[in-house]
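Morning, I've got a small favour to ask if you have a moment. I'm working through a protein record and want to make sense of it properly. The fold is given in discrete form, as structure tokens running alongside the sequence. Can you walk me through what the tokens say about the fold? Thanks so much in advance, here it is:
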Amino acid sequence: MAMSIASLLDTLGLKGNSFWKALAIFFALLNLKHIPFAWHLRILSGLLSHIPFTTSRRRAAATLTPASLFHPMILTSRAAPLEIDYNLHKSNSTYFADFDVARLHLFARLCGVGLARTSSELWLADGKRGPKRIRIFMGGVHLNFKREIKPLQAFEMWTRLLCWDRKWFYVVTYFVEKGRVMPKGWVLQPWRNNKLSADANEIDAVEGKGEETSKIDGEEKRKEGTPHPAIFATGIAKYVCKRGRLTVPPSRILHASDLLPQKPNADDRTATPPLTDSPAVPADGDAVPATAAAAGEAVHDATARTTAEGIMDAALRVKPVTGDGVWDWERVERERMRGMRIAEAWNGTEALGEEFQGGEGMALGKWWDWPGI
């Protein structure tokens, strides 16, 4: 047996040091996400994939409408060996790097045009003085784990805009089992729709129409108020756009991206919200129609009986909004308000900073985190 293995390695040219070199190369390929500067390259790839710096990209960006505002963007990945902890599943700390990349893809696509336009407008309005570019900063991130991701298991990150207020964008990401759910169609990649139809017909022929429809719709039978069984983890993060010390309201970026419908009877002030250095408020600041307000209150009543964790578990998923299919200002505002109920529950954790006692009491001890010195 030993001779046969040696002969095989010799035939493949992997005898001696060559074998260990090939093994090292194979291990590196399995862990491409963790080679030096890989995170930076993933971020750069996301920017180059979505920033509209060519005519074709600008045309593609123009296909996005208010109806696309809350659609998810899907990014695929895999649990690399270096991400596995002593429990033999993807370590919780590694989710955050993937979360960074997924949010970047979405934000660059939705707001790339709006950020460029608003930056230019503000710079010219300021007499070509001050910062020329708007900078984006993260204000917080939270992840909630449901199921483990096993070594080398493929997964998808479904990332979408949840809501916004006067200061913050709120973005959610779902870590989902790859191939478990499918969208009904693709907005920016219409050629995938043909494949989606072919897959549906194939599943229909083999398994029956009922099962196929359930899969294509992205929904599986489950108890009301429980998360989708395909979800590994859910995450939420918030971003702020700054020009110097001044905050650029998210609604202004979205208006510049042609993703917000015109508000009925809106004046110029409402269409282009002013910059502010004031803290965020839960709502957009403008008057809300009674129907939208009633819808928001209904969502609040439905979730008030649960804890903040319950809201994160049960409500962090795309839900159909009733209507005639037209995403006017009122419908967008209704969905934004629904998302704000979730964001407000999460923002309650800001009070944890007040729990820090500092040097007012005793401590158990102090040790070095070797080798992180």
